[in-house]
Amino acid sequence: xxxxxxxxxxxxxxxxxxxxxxxxxxxxxxxxxxxxxxxxxxxxxxxxxxxxxxxxxxxxxxxxxxxxxxxxxxxxxxxxxxxxxxxxxxxxxxxxxxxxxxxxxxxxxxxxxxxxxxxxxxxxxxxxxxxxxxxxxxxxxxxxxxxxxxxxxxxxxxxxxxxxxxxxxxxxxxxxxxxxxxxxxxxxxxxxxxxxxxxxxxxxxxxxxxxxxxxxxxxxxxxxxxxxxxxxxxxxxxxxxxxxxxxxxxxxxxxxxxxxxxxxxxxxxxxxxxxxxxxxxxxxxxxxxxxxxxxxxxxxxxxxxxxxxxxxxxxxxxxxxxxxxxxxxxxxxxxxxxxxxxxxxxxxxxx
Length: 351
Fold this sequence. Notes:
The protein is mainly beta. It has helices at residues 16-19, 118-129, 154-163, 259-275, 340-348; strands at 3-9, 23-31, 38-44, 58-65, 73-85, 90-97, 109-113, 132-135, 147-152, 167-172, 175-180, 198-202, 208-213, 221-228, 233-240, 249-251, 278-285, 295-299, 307-319, 322-330. Helices cover 15% and strands 41% of the residues.
């Protein structure tokens, strides 16, 4: 298969022909949450004929294979740095996801609110920033109460509140998306509303893998506290595996406002700990359909590498060696595991 890219300015001008035979390396990174997507392009500037991009230029990237249409649109980016070096004469530039160049979303603000749910807080911020809210329905059932915003930006505030509940915030163009971490969402064969895609990766496609486990897996319980106004005491709430009473307990740093909030905070932290107990990095021939937040089913390799994983970060690189993909993955939570019927269906497919 022949890899190909198309690069356009957002006003529609096609830059591909100008750059096609000059690109020595192109790397795009797609990350979960508000971690900014990035684009890095390195060009051979022999003859010094390449029109230099300028900081602030907006670009749209398509990347895939000529014989596998349609070519996926990777995203919109804004150039933030241009570099010239030599010899040999080289031009390189980096760009960030266009969603993260809004200055208003990063501006510190002093505010307070009594939004009773995560949904209302997100909608209030989306309205203030002129963004279209795209919010998972469960956010309407997550209480938060009074929130003080002391010198935090709107995105920092919403990210902090969401992360404490194991949710993810993302800006997609003019849309603010708020949902549970992808590891908590059950996948589907194809992407559906609030259900990420599940891709099969057989061992024959994988050129390299690295699996790591760490000591965080020793925590089987998490304890949180809330203040009981009737007794004037801090009350502990614990979630996790009660069958191992001698196992170490992780404690949530901040007290919750009531028992339900304390239990939710402890459960969210336990899910995060379990996801961080192991990580898997896979390298394979380029596949730009693999995106952060999607799930993969690794087949042909034994446990703990084989099985279901969630992509935290996807990196696609095009250079003289062709198109390559590198993904960094974490385990899914119990609520994000694929059904056995879906797994059987995918395994039975003829590649």
